[in-house]
Amino acid sequence: MVSITFYGAINEIGGNKILIEGTETRVFLDFGLCFNRYGNYFSPYITPRQGLKLKDFIELKLLPDLEGLYRQDFEQRFRESSKEPLFDGVVLSHPHIDHAGFIPFIRSDIPFYASEGSLAILKAIEQTSQGFYEFLKLKEKFKIRESKREKGKYVRDKDSSVQREITTFKSSFKIGEFTFHPFSVDHSIVGATAYVIETSEGAVVYTGDIRFHGRKYDLSWKFVEEASKYDPILMITEGTRIHEQTTVTELQLEDNLKRIIKEISGLVVASFPVRDFDRMQSFVNAGKENGRELVISTRQAFALDVLEKEKIDDVPNLDEVRVFLPSKSWGIYDNPNYPIEIQMQDYSTWERKIIEKSSTITANEIREEQESYILRVEPTELKYLLDINPKIGSRYIRSLTEPVDEEMEIQQQKMDNWLKFFSLYPYKQLHCSGHTSRKELLEMINKINPKKIVPIHTENAKDFMSAFEKVMIVEEGVKITLK
Ligand SMILES: [Zn+2]
Ligand SMILES: [Zn+2]
């Protein structure tokens, strides 16, 4: 018997944690964090208890209460931990946090499967972001060892770490009784993969997050064509935008950008998602056409460098962009009173590495030649403009989703104040989604033609029922069987 249990992404967007179980094999598809649900309890000011994070998340039902799944160093803080892992693998669809964010809690001895692109992104996040992002290297917490100097005395062992068991794939692979066929698909991040999983009771399709309007839309259609050949008995499909009819394509967005930027005489300031390299390419291209270079953050540059090293193409080259060197906490960058090696100590080790190998640019340099650049900043980094002073004729382009909750609204209000301060208000909103709209979503399902459909990653699962007969509305934590 084969069964599937959904521990998230039911009536919510993201937080995918899908357990597929056979007679002897148990595999999780994704292990993500749902931002909405997390935000019900936590904020930058209300944080989980460091050593008891796992307990807090299980108690609050942010994580399923399962044995033999979680890291022993965290689990042993509050309960006995199983000696052996009781799961055979975790398979990732793509490296967005709502699909990968809770992987750091999974035991290192449960094999982890991800595409090369996904793994490269996770590597970059792990090395450059603050927060609990131990995707590949797990630093063992709370370990003690006998002191080398004094027998019988114990000290904390802070350097102990283990490497997660990782497998990347180029073609089909087996985990126990299941065979996984991976297909690269189009989404707003590198490495996105959909799967057909062959089980003893038939094939199961899992779309992950998918769209048909980015630069790699043809990959998504290729997946649809291949998946239909397996005559699937069940399709687990994302449905984020089931209620939205239309969509702007990435290439239309790029054309719009080119037109808008042509009209701007001062500095172009822009915000777009940190790891959306499809969007970055649109900005690079729109810049080139208008004699401007795109200036990105050190974090983005680091990711480009990792992707380049891992030979993941279809992203801009590091030498096509400039890298912004902001004045950091000491405020001494570009100050001749301080030797350069002292100035550089203000940057973290990973930042220094990327600064050395890229073409950096400072606020002073941008201020002198504002019509030559597109400066990409996070909405929270508009403060850097205080060192640039955008001249009259400058504009801000916001290429992010509209605020969807209260917290985002509040942040948006503050951002608007900053923009008004710099005379960059009103701004230009220009975005295209990472998710397929209704028309292509229905076309995908019709072509794959599964016996049953389980819509997830949506707040509008019931909308599927007007379009299809065999829709299963499932409940979180309730097992469904494939027969
Ligand atoms: Zn998602
Ligand atoms: Zn996603």
From TrEMBL:
<dbReference type="InterPro" id="IPR011108">
    <property type="entry name" value="RMMBL"/>
</dbReference>
<dbReference type="InterPro" id="IPR036866">
    <property type="entry name" value="RibonucZ/Hydroxyglut_hydro"/>
</dbReference>
<dbReference type="InterPro" id="IPR001279">
    <property type="entry name" value="Metallo-B-lactamas"/>
</dbReference>
<dbReference type="Pfam" id="PF07521">
    <property type="entry name" value="RMMBL"/>
</dbReference>
<dbReference type="Pfam" id="PF12706">
    <property type="entry name" value="Lactamase_B_2"/>
</dbReference>
<protein>
    <submittedName>
        <fullName>MBL fold metallo-hydrolase</fullName>
    </submittedName>
</protein>
<feature type="domain" description="Metallo-beta-lactamase">
    <location>
        <begin position="14"/>
        <end position="243"/>
    </location>
</feature>
